[in-house]
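Working notes for the structural subgroup meeting. M.R. asked for a predicted model of this chain before we commit to crystallization trials. I am recording the input and output together here so anyone reviewing the notebook later can reproduce the run.

Input as submitted:
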Amino acid sequence: MCHVIVTCRSMLWTLLSIVVAFAELIAFMSADWLIGKAKPLSAEDMDNRTGGSQEPYHPTLGIYGRCTRISHMQLTRRDTLCGPYAENFNEIASGFWQATAIFLAMGILILCAVAFVSVFTMCVQSIMKKSIFNVCGLLQGIAGLFLILGLILYPAGWGCQKAISYCGHYASAYKLGDCSLGWAFYTAIGGTILTFICAVFSAQAEIATSSDKVQEEIEEGKNLICLL
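Returned structure, recorded in token form:
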């Protein structure tokens, strides 16, 4: 018989697992990993401009995508073009970024699988006498290691020609040059930290769903068990 068991700790772990998976996925897909040096407005662009801020535009560069402003058009939001610069994996600008993409993709794949499974832990807490929470926590720890490897390798690719075109000639491995880090990089770091927090917190979720109070509720014949 299926017993739906909901506790504060198990629900918090489930929500964090889902948030972490989505945060890492969004960061990986974003082009806002590097914010390039300012591109001054051309004279023609200034002539076409009808008003608004005249601040230079900062293009952004991701692992496999980029955002840039189309020239020779009115400078409105619609002039910003975002999309992949690499049509296939081999066209990613740096071998280090290719490795980063592999490690991040593996970590995100594991996190998405755990997030999917975590939804069903309210009804199924063990498989083959193994706690799903403990197994998921172990997988989250492995995913966190993949994410760390990807984030460590990513700055090593700042010396590639693509990054230099955005960040200037002073850019090199682990040196940003004229660029700055975008929100996607910080989101990936924050998601990695939360991944390890989830891995540790999974043990608390397992303890909460197998506590004596839960067992008492099951013995009383309740199918829906909600505990603080």
